[in-house]
Design brief:
This protein is α+β, with helices and mostly antiparallel strands. The protein folds into 2 domains: about 110 residues, Jelly Rolls (Sandwich); about 100 residues, Homeodomain-like (Arc Repressor Mutant, subunit A). About 40% of the residues lie in helices and about 20% in strands.
Length: about 240
């Protein structure tokens, strides 16, 4: 395989049966699976990312990975310049990986643009959740919009499932506990609004936070900045960030 230009792209190799704990990046990026594969769990569901899969991670996307018996080789590409980017996670199977590799040798941004074009066709999770788990997740997403705090025990019982079993399955499938799942959906909506110039007061109201200080605390925990600093920082440039 030809050497990949490394200034704005990075090829990583992962050992068989290895894993990566929950992590996030401050920039959006595209991962292209060149060889092998892995399962990726996040608040967007559980995906089996095999060879020729493209994965778009929006800024601050929280996820974890478990690699298969062959391990994996992954090419990480920056966000393409001057392209309207999706706010949320997106996966594309059976992409033209050969074309992307050929471009990445000298032009990583062009490779990212080609990958992003393929990502316009998004795929559903390859590991569908049972209906009761989907119902619980839907309630928690609703909570994240209105500031409610439904208890997993009650939600599980309403679905006829043991609370302990529901919590375990939830964390296996989404990679996080129900409470973190709810928080992540709330804060990603807040990031979406703040990036578009909505005030922190209005964002707190629209995202169901108890008050502005609650928003600021959660926002800083995820992004490392207050909402105001996030909007005003001149060095926030997700397009030009290097892969780290």
């Amino acid at each position: 395989m030809r050497k990949i230009a490394t200034r704005y792209a990075k090829k990583t190799h992962h050992k068989p049966n290895d894993s990566l704990a929950l992590h996030r990046h401050s920039h959006g990026y595209i991962a292209a699976v060149l060889e092998g594969g892995y399962e990726e769990a996040s608040v967007d569901g559980l995906y089996s990312c095999v060879t020729a899969t493209l994965i778009w991670h929006p800024p601050f996307h929280l996820h974890k990975n478990r690699f298969g018996v062959r391990g994996a080789t992954v090419l990480n590409l920056p966000s393409p310049a001057n392209t309207p980017l999706p706010e949320f996670y997106r996966v594309r199977f059976n992409a033209d990986i050969g074309k992307i590799i050929a471009l990445a040798v000298k032009h990583p941004i062009a490779a990212a643009t080609a990958a992003f074009a393929d990502l316009q066709i998004s795929s559903v999770p390859t590991c569908p959740a049972p209906s009761w788990l989907t119902a619980i997740a839907q309630t928690l997403r609703h909570d994240s919009r209105v500031g409610a705090s439904s208890q997993i025990g009650k939600l599980a019982k309403d679905q006829g499932v043991c609370p302990e079993h529901a919590t375990r399955r939830f964390k296996t499938y989404f990679g996080v506990s129900p409470s973190i799942y709810r928080r992540e959906h709330r804060v990603r909506r807040a990031i979406h609004l703040i990036r578009r110039g909505v005030t922190s007061v209005e964002t707190a109201y629209r995202c169901g936070y108890a008050d502005q200080s609650h928003l600021v605390k959660e926002f800083r925990k995820v992004t490392g900045r207050t909402p105001g600093a996030f909007q005003n920082a001149e060095n926030i440039n997700f397009v030009q960030d290097r892969i780290c």
